[in-house]
Amino acid sequence: MYYSFVKQLATIKESHEALSRDISDLCSRARFIEEPEIESIQQRLSALIADYLFRQDFKGAASALAKHAEVEGLCDFEDMSRRATVAGELREGNTESAISWCEDNAARLKKLGSPFRARLAIFELRQRVAERDEAVYKRSSAKKDVSAIQAEDKQQSAVLLAWARREVAPAISSCPPNHRTELMKQFQALCGAAMFPPSSEGQMSRYKFDTDAVEEGEKLATLFSTLHEGSSLQHGLLTSLFAMGCTAVRTQLCTPTPGAACPTCNPNVHPMAKTLPLSEKVVSRVICRYSGRPMTDSNPPLMLPNGNVYSTETVHKLAEVNDGRVIDPFTKDEYPLADAVKVFIG
Question: Quick count: other Cβ atoms within 10 Å of Cβ 56?
């Protein structure tokens, strides 16, 4: 009783520490959202670069950059490491970490309508049946007491079927209907294999699927990777933001041009952007809300660190009357002229 109570306290302590870390990370991210200053912008960029380096397997450099820029709370290194571990172990036929991940993300799997948990349970049952069959054949080859061997085989079959009903059947019942029929056929075949162990090595192949465990594990790892498709977890925020930015300005007229102001016309960027969708252009005029003059190629828009946008002409005039510093005419924030950055409007 005492040791059970101590174990429960240890579990509660671990949960509390994990929750405290999550809250700390959320507070760090909220602080960067609420503070659009130059320092936080630079830290956001550092977090994006660190995230990209980590995904490219430069984990040491990524961790060092995140620590130097104090952006550990903005980087999902732990989550990415866990996903890589799960995928790697699945390829090796190990399901322990994948099952733990499914338990932590049960609501997400249900929302996605993914059969991953059910296929994982089928895969584990398949491995257990194969291990049992191998053990049965070894015992039968040892030429021991036949009645004792049969009793032991019967007991193991009962244990295996009980586990299948307890763990595998609920997973199949809760999977999407369009996958349920296929998985149920596999489940029934494996239950038959569990109920009637083979009497020889040749008979063991009757209950095995056409693919081996390694190939089946590779399929599960691929299915696990598809759970993150369409989100920033798949390619990373830096890649996603780059694609969105290029899509916003890319047109049919974009061609590699040295020294071009258009990002997608840059010779280094164009090969990466040419497969992205084109932006929908409409006939419109962007007017500077301070001067009332249109912002064109000769008078492009500039953005101050607080997010307000004015024409280049306006920003330079404001800087001339204040010794090179720009005072935002609406918020009264003051910034050096060098902090104003060019904006590309699609």
Answer: 11
The one-letter code for the residue type at 177 is P
pTM of the predicted model, to two decimals?
0.57
Length of the chain measured in residues: 346
Quote the longest CA-to-CA distance of the chain.
Answer: 103
Q: Say whether 342 sits in a helix, a strand or coil.
A: strand
- Domains (ranges, CATH) in the chain? 2-75 (no CATH), 112-232 (no CATH), 236-273 (no CATH), 282-346 (3.30.40.10)
Own/partner pairs, 181-189, CB within 8 angstroms, 24+ separation: 183/115, 183/118, 183/119, 183/122, 186/122, 187/122, 187/125
Average pLDDT of span 204-226: 68
**What percent of the chain stands above pLDDT 90?**
5
Q: Whole-angstrom Cα distance, residue 29 to residue 35? A: 10
Contact partners, residue 99, CB within 8 Å, separation at least 6: 120, 124
Going by the DSSP 8-state scheme, the letter that residue 196 receives in this structure is S
Span 243-267, pLDDT tens digits: 888 888 887 878 888 877 778 888 8
Beta bridge partners of 302: 310, 342
Phi and psi, residue 310, nearest 5°? -140, 165
